[in-house]
Amino acid sequence: MSFVAVNPASGEAVGEFPDWDERTLDAALEQVAQATPAWAATPMDRRCALMGKAAEVLRRDTDRYARLITQEMGKLLREARAEVEKCAWVCEFYAEQGPAFLADEIIESDAGRSLVAYQPLGTVLAVMPWNFPFWQVFRFAAPALVAGNTGVLKHASNVPQCALAIEEVFREAGFPAGVFRTLMIRASQVKRVIDDPRIHAVTLTGSEPAGRSVAEAAGANIKKSVLELGGSDAFVVLEDADLDRAVNNAVASRFLNCGQSCIAAKRFIVVDAIAEDFLARFKAGVEALQPGDPMDEATTLAPMARADLRDELHRQVTDSIEAGAVAVTGCAPVEGSGAFYQASILDRVTPGMRAYHEELFGPVAIVIRARDEADALRIANDSPFGLGGSVWTRDPARGEAFARRLQAGCCFVNGMVKSDPRLPFGGIKRSGYGRELSRHGIREFVNVKTIWIA
Ligand code: NAP
Questions:
Q1: Model pTM above 0.90
Q2: What is the pLDDT of residues 280-310, one digit of tens each?
Q3: Percent of the chain beyond pLDDT 90?
Q4: Which of 63, 172, 293, 318 is 20 to 30 A away from residue 334, measured at CA?
Q5: Is 340 near ligand 1, meaning CB less than 6 Å away?
Q6: Which fold, 233-420?
């Protein structure tokens, strides 16, 4: 078998890479195991300098990497460039902040001297998705490698060129051989890698079923795991919101990356008093989106990453319409080649419909009407997910009080949910556990070691 990269805008195959056999996999794991002690012993300054070089490589070849991303998973080229730029930022961020985040902490106790030291765990396996094929990997790799861990990547099967290009970034930056390797393996081989004694921890970004199976294998081996899973973020519009601002952000937050973002606004919970006004403006913004070639700067709606994902999204939409949801705009695939789906809005979504309970991972916004603020909060929290959310109100104090009561890993007031290297990122409930980014992210894969001296 081989990994085939398909351009989702055209449906054409653009690259083919052979699967690894067991011998090749074993040799790669052995190379990483050999490199691990020396990397852990490499001074922090040196590790940070190399991470700074990785940022330089990304900046030097932004356009080439961005084109690979767009060709393989379809996002708009300008979004792909921004993604590569953000990867350079996270590399620089940890190159600069890593030493402070992991500095020894002296703690007063009954000892003559006691302290906490942060030490690497060993080799971390990263199982990653295709939706931000560079960013998801760098936000794991930058802190993990700066902390002194080595990393192996099992990337999504539909982005093999990106998977290999990321390994190349670290090689070109001058990282020693074996500090970061891409494994060309299938999902069915992930358990075998977690079981391997040369692997010490695992992180997965992806769907709930994948998360459950990785967590099971990690649990059976008593290995540390972090899970970044799906989300169905609420976008709550209160009656005192600045509607123009809310609508502009609603369109951006739902349709960025063709709606295929874990932290996209997915449930638009709008209080009755302004629901019609919001919906009319939102509809106009959504209908202005132009599907087309994602390499073309004029295009504003990209294709979805794969035709099978588009078809499953359409089933979620049609099942919800059969259950009583109202199609305001779109709600059908775009005719012709490529995995395009119309920019869509489903209104009057209520409990019992698939769109109410499931994540819609594509360009479909759902609107849920709420009586008032208390009702909006109840609906926002009535979700199996707890990744992010936002609230829109002209009163920042009211927004903050709402944010504190939202069951999620983050809540933005009058801003669209986004990740930022300086702020922790992650979920609660079935959105997963653990945190990435910030000082919290770099401390996930370290031994928090107490040293006590009489
Ligand atoms: P996915 O099917 O779970 O794939 C993610 C990765 O897991 C891929 O590398 C995949 O490999 C692998 N995988 C799938 N099943 C597995 C299993 N049983 N055991 C081990 N590995 C397995 O998810 P996706 O469709 O690519 O991504 C969409 C989902 O990811 C959405 O739910 C989205 O919300 C979530 N997501 C979350 C975040 C976050 O930060 N919380 C960020 C982005 C996306 P193959 O490709 O070979 O199947």
A1: yes
A2: 999 999 999 999 999 999 999 999 999 999 9
A3: 99
A4: 63
A5: no
A6: Aldehyde Dehydrogenase; Chain A, domain 2 (3.40.309)
Q: Which among 191, 207, 437 is the best mutation to test ligand 1's pocket, defined by most ligand atoms within 8 Å of the CB?
A: 207
Domain spans in the chain, listed from the N-terminal domain onward: 2-229+431-453, 233-420
361 lines ligand 1 (CB under 6 A): yes
Closest C-alpha residue for ligand 1 atom 40: 228
Ligand 1 mean position to 271 CA, how many Å?
Answer: 34
Q: What does the buried/exposed string (b/e) look like for 5-24 if buried means 16 or more CB atoms within 10 Å of the residue's CB?
A: bbbbbeeeeebeeeebeeee
Q: Cβ(162) to ligand 1 under 6 A? A: no
Among 75, 136, 227, 262, which residue has the most ligand 1 atoms within 8 Å of its CB, making it the best to mutate? 262
Residue 48 φ/ψ region, left for φ over 0, alpha for ψ in the -120 to 50 degree band, beta for the rest: alpha
Measured in angstroms, how far is the CA atom of residue 246 from the centroid of ligand 1?
30
| Active-site residue flag, 48 | no
Q: How far is CA 123 from the centre of its chain?
A: 21
Q: How do residues 347-370 score in pLDDT, each as one tens digit? A: 999 999 999 999 999 999 999 999
> Could you tell me which CATH class the domain 2-229+431-453 is placed in?
alpha beta
CA pair distance 408, 411, nearest whole angstrom: 7
The answer to whether residue 228 is catalytic is yes
What mean pLDDT do residues 234-254 have?
Answer: 98
DSSP string, 357-393: HS---SSEEEEEEESSHHHHHHHHHSSSEES-EEEE-
**Per-residue DSSP letter, 176:** P
Residue 97 φ then ψ, to 5°: -95, -20
Token pair for 363: 């360009």
pLDDT tens track for 98-157 = 999 999 999 999 999 999 999 999 999 999 999 999 999 999 999 999 999 999 999 999
User: What are the residues whose beta carbons fall under 8 Å from the beta carbon of 134, sequence distance 6 or more?
Assistant: 65, 69, 83, 84, 87, 162, 166
Catalytic residue among 72, 228, 436, 444: 228
The string of DSSP letters for 97-114 reads: HHHHHTS-EE--SSSSEE
